[in-house]
Design a protein that fits this description.
Structural class: mainly alpha
Shape: globular
Strand order of the largest sheet: 1-2
Radius of gyration: 19 Å
Oligomer: single chain
Strand content: under 5%
Number of strands: 2
Length: about 325
């Protein structure tokens, strides 16, 4: 049996294991979360009909994080020990660090009963710290070998020197917060990220052809992410029976940015994950426009709420945004060197 076929079987196994673990955890604990009233509080700033969602259990990101860990233990632990794949461990650590920040935010909201959770400065300090530690760890284990930034769709790069690290920290924090803003309607963040995860799986298979054994842990990590998201969407598509909370959305932000650095194409996430950035920039533009002119560009931001107020159903928004992401991911494949 060829090494690539074995790798494909391991990848498929990681998807199935993560999916099964996520669904089983959800089935067992969603009723418990409902009993203890660990439900989402809907703020007045959103569309008024979202009030119907109040009380839906949240912090569901814990379940697909658990599914990913199960798949890694089953299919990648031996490989990591044998190959010493520290880069994958760095990415996993960064994912978990962001998930922990999100968990702290959710904990303050739903256990301490403070609706807004951690303050924006508190979250940014933690996110910057996580980004700095991630970059330092990647540099130490050879995951980042220079301060030249590769440009997608070309063999060129731009030497940034010390500014590479500053811009990388800002870019990471912005991307992570963009995934958080995308998690505003049922199934949106999970569906968009699922497509992006498949994109990274294809890229990693492309890189695996010369040396399949070195890619086992990386593809298991992505396979676990795919399986976990499919399992989560089983309960999160409209009408959602659980929300991922900041625990899940910040973990996802860590995942997509970490994977972009893992394939040595940090900027590719700005193309494949364009929807994340549209969500963020819609908020920035809305705030700037209102402060400078007193007028709003969108009916509501982030932009998915604008489309809701234009009469689009949640399912339609999810389908369109996910389709756009799929097209951009297909284009992005040719931009990875």
């Amino acid at each position: 049996m060829s090494d690539i076929l074995i790798l494909a079987l391991i990848f498929a196994g990681s998807i199935l294991a993560s999916f099964a673990a996520t669904v089983l955890l959800e089935k067992k604990f969603i009723p418990y979360l409902m009993r203890i009233k660990m439900g989402q509080k809907i703020l007045e700033i959103g569309p008024r009909w979202h009030k119907n969602k109040e009380g839906t259990p949240t912090m569901g990101g814990i379940f697909f994080i658990g599914g990913i860990i199960v798949s890694l233990v089953l299919f990648a632990s031996v490989s990591i020990v044998k190959t010493g794949d520290l880069k994958t461990l760095c990415v996993l650590g960064f994912m978990l660090a962001n998930g922990a920040i999100g968990f702290a935010d959710d904990y303050v909201k739903f256990v301490k009963k403070r609706n807004k959770g951690l303050s924006a400065p508190q979250k940014l300090v933690f996110q910057f710290a996580a980004a700095i530690l991630f970059l330092a760890a990647m540099r130490a284990c050879g995951g980042i070998t220079s301060t030249a930034l590769p440009l997608p769709f070309s063999d060129s790069s731009v030497e940034l020197g010390i500014f590479y690290w500053i811009l990388a920290v800002l870019f990471i924090a912005f991307t992570v917060n963009s995934t958080n803003l995308t998690d505003g309607i049922d199934g949106l963040c999970g569906s968009v990220t699922l497509v992006i995860s498949v994109f990274f799986a294809v890229v990693l298979f492309k890189f695996a052809i010369p040396d399949p054994s070195a890619s086992t842990a990386r593809l298991t990590l992505v396979g676990g992410l795919i399986g976990g998201l499919v399992g989560f969407l089983f309960y999160n598509v409209h009408p959602a029976r659980i929300f991922m909370g900041d625990t899940g959305s910040l973990f996802i932000g860590g995942a997509v940015t970490g994977l972009a650095f893992l394939v040595d194409e940090p900027l590719i996430i700005a193309i494949a994950g364009f929807i994340y950035f549209v969500e963020s920039f819609s908020v920035v533009l809305q705030v700037l426009s209102f402060k400078l002119t007193g007028k709003r560009i969108f009916k509501m931001s982030p932009i998915h709420h604008h489309f809701e107020l234009c009469g689009w159903s949640e399912n339609r928004i999810v389908v369109v945004f996910t389709a756009v992401t799929a097209l951009l991911c297909a284009a992005s494949f040719w931009g990875v060197g």
